[in-house]
Amino acid sequence: MSWAVTGMGAVAGVGGDVDELFHNLCAGRSGVAELRGFDRALHTAHHAYEVDNRPAPGVDVTRRATGLLLDAVGQAVRDAGLDESDLSGVPVLVGTGLRELRSVELWRTQGAEFPAAELHFGTALREAFRADDTHTLSNACSAGLYALALGVDLLAQGADTVVVAGVDVLTETMYGLLERVQPVPPTRVRPFDRDRDGVLMGEGAAAVVLSRVPGGRPVHGLVRDVAVNCDAFHVTAPDPAGIAEAIREAHSRGGVKPADIDLLMVHGTGTLLNDEAEATALADVFGPDRDKPLVTATKSMTGHTSGASGLLNLVVTLRCLAEGRVPPTVGLDDPVDEAEGFRFVTGEAAHRPLTVAQLNAFGFGGINAVAILEAAR
């Protein structure tokens, strides 16, 4: 069974709503810029994909993750025609990697006021929308799609409407950790390119409203199903076998086979290990059909938005299916050997009728999630 997406919202470094985000991605516009949120002199990497809503360069404030989340959820709820002043009884599921860790950093290092109760997004969601059934999932970079999987399960168990969201912002601890495990500080994300340097963090939030019965409301697209697993292969290194298993389960749950997939929205972080592992898994599953779907990686323009990345890509993928337009993978000039035979969209947006898409999200610890989406009928 498929579930209707009746509302969408998004905010990222390259767009403050779904329309602007999709337009800029199709135009190949990247959100990378010099680091704004904290002192560049303390870091070897000096670039990131931030949402430019701070009061001044180098000046950071608390609750930015919460603010982006409320923005995206509000957009999605209004788009779905729901009463945004009263979401009581509607499950709101939030996927995140770091929650309000940046606010904790500012509290600890600068004495910024930040009550412990506001660590949980439920506090702000209740105040803004009267949402009284909120849940936060922290599953690294797969958190958004894990929340989507739970949302699908709730609909299958009888829920009428579910709001699913994902959010993350830069934290100095994670930024510093990533720059120290990469041989050369990257200046941009180049997924699947032989000369890629590694990953840079991005910021953003996305939300969708899932409906059991649309009730005459416009439908952006359908979620056929979501597969999740945890192969626990390594703390950070991905396992192609675990990824391939998640993809095969998603195909089975979604009632599709590789030849049915028109679009692959890959995880594509630009890291030295992840891209090769993802390409190896896809080649294993798709085999002779690897040249059929178009393939793109939007992190080349949004950066890696951690727990928000899966749902940002979900929103973009649904627009791709609706419009038959696919953003390019910016900076992909010489694909790695493992990706040979795939039809990457590069240079400019591709135009082609699309019906079924696969969306990948993989996180530290072997936390894998794959969704199968379908164009609105």
What does this structure look like?
This protein has helices at 18-26, 64-79, 101-110, 121-129, 143-156, 172-180, 240-254, 274-286, 299-302, 309-323; strands spanning 3-12, 33-34, 47-48, 92-95, 134-137, 161-168, 204-211, 221-230, 263-265, 294-296, 325-326, 343-344, 350-351, 356-363, 367-374. With 377 residues, the chain is α/β, with parallel strands linked by helices. It folds into two domains: 3-211, Thiolase/Chalcone synthase (Peroxisomal Thiolase, Chain A, domain 1, 3-Layer(aba) Sandwich); 223-375, 3-Layer(aba) Sandwich (Peroxisomal Thiolase, Chain A, domain 1), CATH 3.40.47.10. The strands form three sheets. An eleven-stranded mixed sheet has the order 5-4-6-7-1-8-15-14-9-10-12, sandwiched between helices. A two-stranded antiparallel sheet has the order 2-3. The chain has a two-stranded antiparallel sheet with strand order 11-13. Helix 7 (240-254) packs across helix 8. The longest helix has 16 residues, at 64-79. It is globular and about 60 Å long. 57% of the residues are buried. The mean pLDDT is 96. InterPro entries: Beta-ketoacyl_synthase (IPR000794), Ketoacyl_synth_C (IPR014031), Ketoacyl_synth_N (IPR014030), PKS_Beta-ketoAc_synthase_dom (IPR020841), Thiolase-like (IPR016039).
